[in-house]
Amino acid sequence: MESMISAIKAGRSGFTLIEALMATVILTLVASAAAVGLGLSSAAQQEARLTQMAAQAAQQQLAFLLEKPFEAMADHAVEEPIGTMMAPPAGGGVDRTGTLGGAWSRLGRRTTLSDEPLTFTQYGGVQVEGTRIQVEVFGPDGTVYASIRRHRVRETGS
């Protein structure tokens, strides 16, 4: 019997308690690093999505203003707080009736108009009267995700 016990001790296999604890600690560190990486990746993806949506909202507002008669643009120079951005006009319509929902409700939009001439330096400083249109789309913390600025020339009757 003693020879059997000494044979078992001599060829023992398995981990000691210290080895098992060290393996657990290393595995925990690797898992926590992976979890942090996934969390950062998710936050970056969400930020990129908000930026893309903000650019679309700014472009949509600019297109809406450019389709309006020049004098009617002033009616749309407003700040739309978070969750109240107006939706584009429904198929073929000219006026907006509802607000954008879903993920769009996490954004707000500020449209400002200012009368100022546009100077063409390449043509000897010729100035053209018009309005500067600026559209900014922002998030809940005030971060501006998209900003577009254009100049619209005042139309003259022919």
Q: Note the gap between the termini.
A: 117 Å
| Poorly predicted segments | none
The chain-level structural class is: alpha+beta
Mean pLDDT: 83
Report the major sheet.
4 strands, antiparallel
The proportion of residues forming helix, as a percent range, comes to 25-40%
User: What sort of overall outline do the alpha carbons produce when their principal axes are compared?
Assistant: elongated
**Total DSSP E strands:** 6
Radius of gyration of CA atoms, rounded to a whole number = 31 Å
Number of helices: 2
- Tell me the strand order in the biggest sheet: 1-2-5-6
Taken together, the total number of domains comes to 1
Q: What oligomeric state do the depicted chains represent?
A: single chain
**In percent, how much strand structure appears in the residues?**
15-25%
Secondary-structure element series: HHEEEEEE
Could you characterize what this model shows?
By secondary structure, the chain is an alpha+beta fold. It has one domain. Helix content is 38%, strand content 22%. It contains two helices and six strands. It has helices at residues 2-10, 17-67, and strands at residues 79-80, 108-115, 118-120, 126-128, 130-138, 144-153. The strands form two sheets. The protein has a four-stranded antiparallel β-sheet, covered by helices on one side. The longest helix is centred in the first third of the chain and has 51 residues, at 17-67. It is elongated. It starts with a helix and ends in a 5-residue tail after the last strand.
